[in-house]
């Protein structure tokens, strides 16, 4: 998003977090309605997200923008690779 739409890195990260939060909330609601949710794990993820968000906001102002871009790109590649591997292993 950052490279394509000319958003600042902070806006690109915020935009991606918005979509991840929306998908996560909808998925959690679906699992909750199906009574397939482990509340302990769900609360740990929520707590971790809150702590990570607070900590990430603080360090984002201290980390150079170029380094932040590299960290964000690496994180996206790792997540995409994980999703691809999971998807391929499902069909094997």
Output the keywords.
single chain, 92 residues, mainly alpha, globular
Separation of termini?
A: 32 Å
| Shape designation | globular
> What about the largest sheet?
none
What ranges have pLDDT less than 50 throughout 5 or more consecutive residues?
A: none
Number of strands: 0
Number of domains: 1
**What percentage of residues falls in helices of 4 or more residues?**
over 70%
Structure description:
By secondary structure, this protein is mainly alpha-helical. It has one domain (2-91). The protein is 85% helix and 0% strand. The chain has four helices and no strands. The longest helix has 27 residues, at 65-91. The chain starts with a helix and ends with a helix.
Helices and strands in order:
Layout: H1 2-5, H2 9-33, H3 39-60, H4 65-91
Write a compact overview of the structure shown:
The chain has helices at 2-5, 9-33, 39-60, 65-91.
């Amino acid at each position: 998003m950052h490279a394509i739409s000319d958003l600042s890195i902070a806006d690109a990260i915020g935009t991606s977090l918005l979509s991840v939060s929306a998908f996560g909330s909808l998925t959690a609601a679906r699992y909750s309605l199906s009574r397939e949710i482990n509340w302990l794990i769900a609360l740990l993820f929520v707590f971790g997200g809150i702590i990570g968000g607070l900590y990430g906001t603080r360090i984002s102002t201290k980390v150079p923008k170029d380094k932040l871009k590299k960290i964000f790109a690496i994180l996206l590649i790792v997540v995409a690779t994980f999703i691809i591997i999971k998807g391929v292993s499902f069909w094997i």
